[in-house]
Structures are given as structure tokens and as C-alpha cells.
């Protein structure tokens, strides 16, 4: 009888060394002997992804998940493959499975938000980014993506606050933010000036009404 644990260890070692074809052969051998060894399926799909064979990797993940659909990392990786193919509905379904199985996966929440954002569903995108931040308050990308979503819907105050938080956590994001953060700052100031003018007008307007009532 073959030592499947050793074959798995050898396969993972070969994968780590960049010997992808050798690793693939080992994982295939394990799956043929015992299809219930999920690590072999997982690592086979990862190997195929490294080889640029995304369609085959998708097929492997889907076949594996028919055997055991309780592995969050498989759902996450499958979601990433669908996302890269612009199949956002399928990506969302996969990421939802991932966070249901592991609610503490901040990256899965963030990617779920990205998939919603690509579909124009900003409300659900913000909700997903918020969950990512709740899991990991230091997650700069989630803060950035949340800020960008608030910018899209015209909530410039939150866009600026969250954008600056993201840059504070990861200064490298400042370059990406140049595409929209200066505009968000400008628009926030315009809104503030407008609100101040409006409030002043309303204040005076109310006093005028009060004076008229008193005169009567």
C-alpha cells in the first residue's frame, strides 16, 4: 500500500520548489488512490493555477467541493478564479460560502466587497468591507475599498476619513488614492460650505418668521 502521507508531503515540497509538473503528478496519484484526501485536491488546484491553467483549476475545485463543501479556502480560491474571469455572480456565491464557513476571514469579506462593487452593488460592498474591518481593524485595503465605495456614492466625508485611515495604515496606498481622494476632499469642502450657507439662511429665515409672529 502506498504511503499517501509521504506522497502528499513530497507533492507539497515539489510545489514549494516550483516543480509544478512533478507536484501535479503526485497529487493526481493520491487522488486516484483516495479521492477523500482533500489536501491533494486543494494543492492540485493551486498547482494548476500556478501553471496558468485556471479553467482546469476551477474544475478541480468544483469536483473537490462535491466531495466536501466545508473547506473555506477552496471556496475562497474558487471565488478568486471566477472574479478574475469577470464572473462576479459566481465569485460572490463562492465568497459567501467562504465567510459563512469562516466569518473571521477578513480577506474573503474584502473580496466579497470587491465583487459586489464590480456589479455596482455599493451598499453590499460597503457592508462586506465593514465586516472585513471588524475582523481586522488594521486591514488597509479594506479601509481603502470602503473609502472608494463611499466616494462612488457621493459620501465624501466618509470617503476622506476612511481613505486617510487606509493611507495611515499603508502609505503606499497614497499613490492609488490620488485618482480620487483630492477630488473627495474638494467636494467635501464644497458640501461643508453649502451646508453652512444653508444653515445660516435657515437660521435667519426662522428668525424672520418668529419676528413676524411676534409683530402680529
Short note summarizing the structure:
This protein is mainly alpha-helical and 216 residues long. 81% of the residues lie in helices and 0% in strands.
SSE layout and pairing:
Blueprint: H1 4-16, H2 20-33, H3 38-50, H4 54-67, H5 72-84, H6 88-101, H7 106-118, H8 122-135, H9 140-152, H10 156-169, H11 173-177, H12 181-215
Helix pairs in contact: 1-2, 1-3, 2-3, 3-4, 4-5, 5-6, 6-7, 7-8, 7-9, 8-9, 9-10, 10-12
What would your notes on this structure say?
It contains twelve helices and no strands. With 216 residues, the protein is mainly alpha-helical. The protein has a domain at 137-216: Alpha Horseshoe (Serine Threonine Protein Phosphatase 5, Tetratricopeptide repeat). α1 (4-16) runs parallel beside α3, α3 packs antiparallel against α4 (54-67) and α7 packs antiparallel against α8 (122-135). The N and C termini lie far apart (104 Å). Mean pLDDT is 91; it is low at 203-216.
The low-confidence runs, each spanning 5 or more residues with pLDDT under 50, are: 203-216
The percent of residues in helical segments reads over 70%
- Note the total helix count: 12
The CATH superfamily of one domain appears as: Tetratricopeptide repeat domain
- What does the overall shape look like? elongated
Q: Kindly provide the radius of gyration, computed on alpha-carbon positions and rounded to a whole number of angstroms.
A: 25 Å
Major sheet attributes: none
- Secondary-structure element string: HHHHHHHHHHHH
CATH architecture of one domain: Alpha Horseshoe
CATH topology of one domain: the name is Serine Threonine Protein Phosphatase 5, Tetratricopeptide repeat
Number of strands: 0
Averaged pLDDT, please?
91
Content of β-strand: under 5%
Structural class: mainly alpha
